[in-house]
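A protein record in our archive is deliberately plain, so that people and models can read it alike. The tokens are whole numbers drawn from a learned vocabulary of local backbone shapes. For reference, a complete record is included directly beneath this paragraph.
>
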Amino acid sequence: MQARQMDANELHARLTRWLQRKMPRASDLVLENMSRSGAGFSNETMLFDAKWTEDRKPLTRGLVLRTPPKAYPVFPEVALVKQFRVMGLLGQTKVPVPRMLWLEEDPDVLGTPFYVMEKLKGTVVPEYPPYHTFGIYFDATPAQRARMWWGALENMARVHMLDWKKLGFSFLGVPGGGTGPVDRQIEYLDMYLNWMKEGDSQPIFETALQWLKDNRYGPERVSLCWGDPRLPNTMYNEQTYEVVALLDWEMSFLGDPEADLAWFLFCDWQHSDGYGFPRTEGSPGREETIHRYEEVTGFKTKHLFYQEVVAALFFGIIMAQIFKNFKRMGVAIPGDASEYNTVGHQRLAALLHLAPPAAPQRQVTNVDQMTVTVQFHMTGPGGSDWYLVCDKGKAAKFDGCAPKADCGLVVSAEDWARMQRGELEKFKAWTDGKLKIEGDMSLFMQLEDTISRFTKGGGQP
């Protein structure tokens, strides 16, 4: 993926020189363990450790570098400075966020503006594969999942109860009275949609936007909104399952806090029913979540449906832009998903009773109750063909090609071995064109845990 390509040696050298200027008392400064983190659609995130000597004492500090993508942007504007300022102000409150260290707006240093923040110890819930099928949330007990869910929700509610004026968040733009907060949301979506369309037609998005214009309302309160509240933007303690930090504030704004609640609910729908996955046991339901939010904040939700339409439209535009970027990069997208058929399109069609853009929304399928065949085609030196028959969560391997496979992947034997050793993320391999997924991608993602457990520890099983 060209947006992520950066010469590692040059990045290392430039960043070391820059940090040395920020840390003039540090001698023998060395950067180690540099690695990329996250999907990186709207930002690049690099983790690394800085080691140095100061006053004859050896010191080590974990750091995180964040930059906007150099190519294939997801949003029409770069919100790097906003993120830095928002998290810096939140650091003065009880909302858990990483400590912000340095902002560099000069693009000549690394070829793009960036900021550096503290690296925290914790685990982030995965986005791909979705957390209802893989990772810490999937592996947790029902009680632990509930603790993670409520931790994210209650910290989101804590954001909404902040005195944003006193804390200095007015720089985000104070909306006018009446329908002012909603008007700002509509204006942004209108601009964003036109930017993404590039002159093309998007009938479902355009109909949804008009519905929002015709049904605008005046919210009872204005709060600081996280903008992107969801489990994959929450870091957890691996032992206690308590929230360590709230991440990704590039979409933050001042507006109706019900927007955050609607986004939180929509994103969980997307990670489960939207992709045809069953929700994991212990995950609180919609009505229970709304009730807890109202109980914690003292706010009564009155316009949640409206904000759910906003969330579906906003998410749909984001995904449409990502799919367009994939197409430009030559990334193969399995199935009928495209910039004209995202989960946002499907959700809007259901909410507003519109004709769906393609096939009807995928029905929830539980692979633990069915038999699925996954074909593996390993290319290059050491390559071979083999397949797994996953029967109700148990996998068996067979050599050759399956008579009929439900899904499969094509990858070099070398890259597959790197994935098993943890040196290459499957998602990054896919977006870089090194991994091709064929057939039903939803089934493949739902089987990620089974496949990973079966192949763990050394390339092919």
Observations:
- The radius of gyration is 23 Å.
- The chain has a mean pLDDT of 89.
